[in-house]
Structures are given as structure tokens and as C-alpha cells.
Amino acid sequence: MEVTFRIRRFNPEIPGKNKPYWQEFTLKDVEETDRVLELLHRIKWEQDGTLTLRRACAHGICGSDAMRINGVNRLACKVLVKEFPEGKKIQVEPILGLPVLKDLVVDMEPFFAHYRQVMPYLINDSPLPANGRERLQSPEDREKFDDTTKCILCACCTTSCPSFWANGEYVGPAAIVQAHRFIFDTRDEALKERLDVLSEPNGVWRCRTIYNCTPACPRDIQVTRAIGEVKLAIQRGKREGIVVDPPKHSGQGMG
Amino acid sequence: MTALVTTITETLRYRGAIGQWSWVLHRVTGLGVVLFLTLHVIDTSWAVFYPDLYVKAIAVYQTPLFTIGEFVLVACVIYHAFNGIRIIVFDYRPGWWKYQARAALLVLGLSIMVSIPVFVAMFGHVLAFYNDPMRQMLGLVEVIESQLPFAAGIGAAVIAAIIASAAFGAVTGEKTAAGIKRGSRIEKFWWSFMRVSGILIVPLVFGHLAMMHVIQGVFAITEVGHTVVGTTTPNVSGTAVEFVANRWNFLFAGVAVWRLYDFALLAMVVAHGFNGLRYVLTDYTMSSPLLRRAAVYLCVIGASVLLVLGGLALVNTIDSTAIQIASEAAEQLFAQ
Q1: Would A35 be classed as within a structural domain?
Q2: How far is B319 from B55, CA to CA, in rounded Å?
Q3: Measured between alpha carbons, how far is A205 from A219 in angstroms, rounded to an integer?
Q4: For chain A, how many structural domains are there in total?
Q5: A100: part of which helix (H) or strand (E)?
Q6: Interchain proximity B191–A205, CB inside 8 Å
Q7: In A11, B20, B116, B286, which residue has its Cα 20 to 30 A from A252's Cα atom?
Q8: Chain B closest CA to A131's CA: distance in Å?
Q9: pLDDT in tens, B219-252
């Protein structure tokens, strides 16, 4: 099978050619079970060594190869050629809303700055239980934030969000998902601080429930739902009684 | 501005699902309704303050351009109402998100289903008017000219908001986006307000549309002897001013029900509409403190003007002199 790739290129190092442009590459002998990432590798290795992209594990765990593939944010390592019924043409461009450094590589720093803003770590300064062992939690309480522990920080959700495209100061879906993981953790004691951060004008209220983020997530996290639950937690000033009927395991396993 | 352009082009390019299009439609229909709301509240206040201008405003509503606008407006309100209910349901039940796409389709379907009979009824009024050999109508040029003061007023409000914002920036020396403080409770309040007011507005605005556009019809506002909708009194002079006077003076169990109704509608719709406008405008101006502040000021100016004008009109009385002025104005309007 022959497949044509249409790739958004950008190289600030070439004088006079520092504007983004589209370039096409045609690959022969493509199997329909090939992943987009492998084919991008083939282009880089066989045709144009300057094609720049980011990837590490190549198995849907590290979250480094998020890109917009045929109009939707995906991980290149999780997309098979056969997914595109329209077939032989695959369009690849960098995710939107973060500064493009080169070709498909974006500067993730603003994204991680928002991540740090929500204090994505367990805060609990009270003394350990008398027996010196771990702080116990019921399976039901653990279940409430299970879905949001799955995030791999690939930025697929945040860069699918029109509110984030318009306003890079908006913390974005991924940071809210990370906040959700601690807001609904009964062992955490920084509920108020986190809710305060997220009730700023660039916090959760910029979410217009557009639902682009939910299908964009390669880990099937129910992103818009998590954001909605954080909004309700802010409205009610507490975590109890908001996550009713927590999401079940999707059974999707590791990428 | 780049933020707005990026959002428009990329929303067209990104293959989002139906939720994305619902959001686009919600914004577009909301903006359309706010624009008409601005014209309409100012127009209606003239029934009290400038009866001759109100006569002309209603004559303008009875021209083809505004008839088309009327159909668009009604469709916008219906969609915005149903989609707003959908948004509210999923805001308070985030766990139901799996049904949001189906709900979005349902909203579209319901909007069309409700629009059809409403349009048929409204079109009946249009046909009756155009079949009337005695009908009188303003020309297109005159209609457009009559809207120039509004365009100028909106332009002036925009300029005033930008100047005020620049002045505020110069005085305080604020370079970063102002007013963004930790734990700000104000956005939390507005989020709830939009949802509560949204629910309250639906019956009020549907009732208003049903009375004015379906039962009475815009053309019958100036029909001599036509019983004014929601009252038992006929419009003797056949002027738009008497139409308003009959409604506002109508007492039910000793209460001026339509004044109260219109006041509730005015307060709710203005607050909801201009906060919605603030959401839209600030979404695209967060990178510029000057424009972001100006957007907020513009919404405050707009809402204040409408609340003051509309509120004052609602507590005033329309006497027989006003109706007399209106009758003369109506005669002169088509005499030229």
C-alpha cells in the first residue's frame, strides 16, 4: 500500500524560510497495521533526515509524541494506518496552542507551568497514623479519582481545547485532571489551596464544556467529566458527594 | 485579535465532535440575541421618552429586513435556550457526559421541531400584512439610516471603554492582566448566576416571544382596534405607543403584571446577556490587559445603559399626550 503524508514543517534555523509550510512525502510498502510513528520514522530515516519529532517509549506510555493527525490530537505511536478509511493521505501537524520549536516539536514548558500551578503532589502535613504505616483509604474513596491517575501529560487534551487556543494562560484540561486526582483524594489536605488556584479567572471557569478534550485523551480519561466535578467542588467548597458512580476501569490497559 | 482569528480558523480545521459545534452555535446565537436586545430595550424605552421615535422603530420592525431578522432572532433564542439547558444539565451531572453528544443532537432536533410551527404562525402574520392593500412600509434606505444612531452609539461605547481602560492602565501602571487574583469568588458567582438566570429566562423569554411574535405578531402592534395581547383593552389609536401603554397599565388583581414581567425579563436578560458577552470578549483578549479591561467596561456600560433606560421606562407612565404625539408621528411617517 502506498500512503502520502502531508506534514506541517517549520524550521527557524533556515534564514528566509522560517515560515511554516506543508510538505508531502510518499511511502511505499506500507502495511495497514503500521503505526503513524513508524511511518514518520521511515520518512526521517529514508527521505528527509531533517524531519523533527519528539518520541521516547513509542508505546503510548511516555506521552511525548502527541500531534494532530488528520485533524485530531493523537499519540502517533497509538494510531494505525487502517484507522483512516479515507485512506491513503495522512496529515500531521504539531499540537496547537504551544510555541512550535521545529516541525512537530512544541515547547511544553507553558503546559508544565500550568501543571505545577495546581500543586500536583499529595499534601498532608499531619502526623502519620500511630502504627507508623500508610494512611489508609477505602477502595470506594480510591475509586473516585482512579480515572484521573491515568494521565501521562501528553497535552492532547489541553491542545484540543478552543479556550486554550485563545488563551494560553488558561490552566487547561490536563492541569485540571491532575488537580482532580488530588482534590478527590481523601488523604490530601490542600483542598482549599487547590480549589483557590482553580477558581481564578484563568482556572476552571474558562472551560466552556466543548468536549474536544475527552475524545482526544489517549488514555480514555473522562476529561470533561473531571473538569465538571472540579467545578462542583469549587461551588460547594468540599469534595464529598460530587463523584457519584465513579468511572469504571475502561479495560483499555497500557496503550 | 490573533487569539480570535486562531480560534475561528482552528475550530474550522480541528475535527472536533458535535460539542464543538454546539459551542460555536451557542456563542453565535447568544451574540445575535444580545445585539437585538440592545436595540430593542433602547427602542422600547422611547415609547415613554420619545413617542415619535418609537412609532418609527416599530415601523422599522415591520419592514422585510427586520422580518427576516425576526425569524433569525426567534430561531437563535430557541436554540440558545435548549442548548443552555443541555449545558446546565451536564454541568450539574458531569458523570452523564457520555450522553452529551446525543443531547446536542436532540437540542438541534428540538430547536427545529419547535421552530417550524412557530415560523408557520409568524409567517401567517407576514402573509396577512402583505395581503393587506392598505399596508404602508418604510424603504430599505430609511430602515438602514434609522439604525445608524445605534451603530454610532455602540461605536461610542467601544471607544469609551477603550479610553477608560487606557486611562486606568496609565493611572495604575498595570501591565499584566488585572484583577486576576487568587481565590477570586466573582467568577464562581457568575458561573452559578448564568445557570440560574438561564433557567429563569427560558419561560420568561418564551412567553414574551409567544405573545409578541406568535399570538399578536409584530404587524398587529399598530392595528387599530386589535385587542392588545395579555390585556382586555383594544388599541384604539392603532399606535405602537398605545400598545405599550395598554400592556403596562393593565391591572390583574390590582397588580401591573406586565410591568413586573417586563422588569424581571429586563433584569435577567441584560445581566445574563452582557455577562455572556463578557465571557466571549475576554476569552479572546486575555493576552492584552488594555483590551481585556475594555471588554469588561464595555459590558458594564452596555448593561448599565439598558438597565437604566429600561428601568426608567418601566416606572414611568404613558399618558394620552404621548399617544397623541404617536398618532401624529404615524401619519407623518408615511405622508412623505
Answers
A1: yes
A2: 15
A3: 24
A4: 2
A5: strand A100-102
A6: yes
A7: B20
A8: 37
A9: 999 999 999 999 999 999 999 999 999 999 999 9
